[in-house]
Write a structure and sequence with these properties.
alpha/beta; 5-stranded mixed sheet; 7 helices
């Protein structure tokens, strides 16, 4: 059974465990274009209520049979699909490597399931769901359509919707040379999400106490 402190995150997000996901792909069409890389950051809540990063995960993915890969997409993300140093694995194994630690954290933290956090989150969820459908994966930890989108959060809280600019407005670092690595972008998105949520939580607590 999770400890009382571990249950804080379940109470904070109505039974959901936020997990930041970023994917690198061969294009914009989740049904036709290759899923090439997944970065994930599992979040948690400290006893004082602050949302923090708990665990980072990443995996390179082999394109599924017949997958489309746009040259323009590779020019942006810098991925060399045929590079053996990628150590890419088939989609089902890639999902398992990401999903197993997430399911474990969901259980340990007393949550019901995970919810995907992303910058343009429905893009990332679309590619994850497409891979789930292609591989017949039966134990996805994620809610199938609900997300937390940092584009919306950053636009409302900081007046910025581009990740690099939102991070700058939040006083957080962003290295353009590291951008478009799935893990790097997932970790920066996690920083942004945590800061915005923690600011809101503090303001909410102060307002509640003032009343």
């Amino acid at each position: 059974m999770p400890s009382p402190d571990n249950r804080v995150i379940a109470q904070r997000f109505r039974g959901f465990l936020p997990v930041v996901i970023d994917v690198e792909t061969g294009g914009f069409d989740s049904g036709k274009d290759a899923l090439l890389e997944i970065g994930a950051v599992i979040l948690s809540v400290e006893p004082d209520g602050r949302v923090v990063q708990r665990e980072s995960l990443s995996v390179h993915v082999q394109p599924f049979a017949g997958a489309n890969i746009e040259a323009a997409a590779l020019a942006v993300n810098g991925i060399r699909v045929d590079n053996p140093l990628r150590m890419a694995v088939p989609e089902r194994e890639a999902l398992d490597r990401i999903f197993r630690p997430i399911r474990r954290a969901v259980s340990e933290l007393g949550c019901r399931r995970a919810i995907l956090v992303g910058h343009n989150a429905h893009f990332d969820l679309g590619f994850i769901n497409a891979a789930i459908a292609r591989t017949g994966y039966k134990r996805s930890p994620f809610h199938p359509f609900s997300v937390f989108d940092t584009v919306t959060l950053a636009g409302a809280a900081l007046g910025q919707t581009v990740l690099a600019r939102a991070l700058e407005a939040a006083g957080l670092d962003y290295d353009a040379e590291e951008a478009h690595s799935a893990l790097y972008d997932a970790e920066r998105t996690a920083e942004l999400f945590c800061q915005i949520v923690n600011r809101f939580s503090s303001a909410f607590a102060e307002t509640t106490m003032g009343n």
